[in-house]
Amino acid sequence: MERDRPYIVGLTGSIGMGKSTVGKLFVDEGVPLFDADAAVHELQGPGGALVDAIEALFPGSTNSDGVDRQKLGAAVLGDPAALKQLEKLIHPAVAEMRQSFLEKHRDQPLILFDIPLLFEKGGAESVDYIIVVSAGAEDQRARVLARPGMSDERFEQIKAIQMPDVEKRHKADSVIDTSLPLLETRQQVQKLVQKLRASLA
User: Fold this and answer.
1) To 10 degrees, the CA torsion angle through 57, 58, 60, 62?
2) Which residues contact 39 (CB under 8 A, 6 or more apart)?
3) For 104-157, how does the pLDDT look when each residue is reduced to its tens digit (9 = 90+)?
4) Are the C-beta atoms of 168 and 12 separated by less than 8 Å?
């Protein structure tokens, strides 16, 4: 059957699971990647399209460099109503950027959408295949707590709005384990890309 668009692979995983690393490994294999986090950074960075609207909603959360992510995080984490307000701004803007990316790569057989909250925000229906990036709980905690400005409390707040890893793995079409050495993670990605390309040929 002729497809009128690329086969869309959704890449997701909880915080600290190594999703960004796996995304780069797919790019190394020639698969175009739309990174939702990178899109948000662009929208919230210096001169970003959402900076003024975010400042209007959360006064003091921006500066000359755009949005101060720590101040914005402090304003919305643990406050479901504030988080909802922020998401109503961000999600449509990111969806528009994702659609533009899809149009730009329409001639590709396979593209990758890196979407952190793929299951939580109901995006699973918009992709053809789901990969969950996973690691052991100790690896996850060590990686997250090594990030600047991260604390145990903030980590727990973030985890509370994410679907548990075990549920994500259960819903996945494939799981990529990043507790292994990078070379082995790369081999998992290479095998999966070969398998997907073969299924589309």
Assistant:
1) -80
2) 93, 94, 97, 98
3) 999 999 999 998 889 988 888 889 999 999 999 999 999 999 998 889 988 988
4) yes
Neighbours of 29 (CB within 10 A): 15
In angstroms, the first-to-last Cα distance of the chain is: 11
Longest dimension (CA), the chain: 53
Where are the domains positioned within the chain?
A: 7-32+105-200
Contact status, residue 179 vs residue 21, Cβ threshold 8 Å:
no
pLDDT digits (tens, 9 = 90+) for 25-72: 999 999 999 998 899 999 999 999 999 999 999 999 999 999 998 889
**pTM for the full model?**
0.85
What kind of architecture, by CATH, is found in domain 7-32+105-200? 3-Layer(aba) Sandwich (3.40)
**Predicted confidence band at 2 (pLDDT cuts at 50, 70, 90)?**
low
Overall size of the chain counted in residues: 201
Could you tell me which residues come within 8 angstroms of residue 157 by beta carbon, excluding any fewer than 6 positions away?
A: 77, 78
| CA dihedral sign, ordered 164, 170, 175, 181 | positive
